[in-house]
Design brief:
Strand content of chain A: over 45%
Oligomer: heterodimer
Structural class of chain B: mainly beta
Order of helices and strands of chain B: EEEEEEEEEEEE
Structural class of chain A: mainly beta
Shape of chain A: globular
Helix content of chain B: under 10%
Helix content of chain A: under 10%
Number of strands of chain B: 12
Largest sheet of chain A: 6 strands, mixed
Strand content of chain B: over 45%
Shape of chain B: globular
Distance between the termini of chain B: 37 Å
Number of strands of chain A: 12
Radius of gyration of chain B: 13 Å
Radius of gyration of chain A: 14 Å
């Protein structure tokens, strides 16, 4: 089964603290893609990163970094020196085959991050 | 940049009404999707389409139908709205088979009273 678990429902941090959002996935596919999206209060989901299953290199983009570990089926997201503008709901997603054989995105339930000034 | 436009941000409808949610994308994407988002449940796929006049059921198609007469437009139809369809509805499009991520619209918050 294709499944994404984001165990943290809500996280609150004080501005400038570092925060890690956890994502664990299950898949039967050997080739798959993992994604993180940000949903600010405006409602639109904003694409942050895509990672394929053959590339386990960690990635850093400014204050954002991602740690992909195939051995533990995890794709965690860290925000360094958090800012109030980082407050949003963050979704982890997995691209894989659904029960009809179509390729779709499977989303976790999201983590609401609140950064307190 | 790809843009996905949903016609309404907020909508209030009465139980039993037929409701149309419209979604238009401007980058010639083959694939379009409708999700609903509910607290604690994340995003759940209602219907998707990989081509004009083509549609496939997602995880929760009951009570919904879709229409894709033109490549750029994907409509979600609630044949007879019910209060349990009160939700945020998100439309998305993509050029690949999901491997390249999706571009989402801003969402339509539908309230059925």
């Amino acid at each position: 089964a294709q499944k994404v678990t984001q165990a943290q429902t809500e996280i609150s941090v004080v501005e400038k603290e570092d925060v890690t959002l956890d994502c664990v996935y299950e898949t039967r596919d050997t080739t798959y893609y993992l994604f993180w999206y940000k949903q600010p209060p405006s409602g639109e989901l904003v694409f942050l990163i895509r990672r394929n299953s053959f590339d386990e290199q960690n990635e850093i983009s400014g204050r954002y970094s991602w740690n992909f570990q195939k051995s533990t089926s995890s794709f965690n997201f860290t925000i360094t020196a958090s800012q109030v503008v980082d407050s949003a709901v963050y979704f982890c997603a997995l691209s894989g085959l659904d029960q009809t054989g179509a390729n779709n995105l499977f989303f976790g339930t999201g983590t609401r991050l609140t950064v307190i000034p | 940049d790809v843009k996905v436009t949903q016609s309404s941000r907020y909508l209030v409808k009465r139980t039993g009404e037929k409701v149309f949610l419209e979604c238009v994308q401007d980058m010639d994407h083959e694939n379009m999707f409708w999700y609903r988002q509910d607290p604690g449940l994340g995003l759940r796929l209602i219907y998707f389409s990989y081509d004009v006049k083509m549609k496939e059921k997602g995880d929760i198609p009951e009570g919904y139908s879709v229409s894709r007469e033109k490549k750029e437009r994907f409509s979600l139809i609630l044949e007879s709205a019910s209060t349990n369809q009160t939700s945020m509805y998100l439309c998305a499009s993509s050029s690949g088979q999901g491997d390249y991520g999706y571009t989402f619209g801003s969402g339509t918050r539908l309230t059925v009273v």
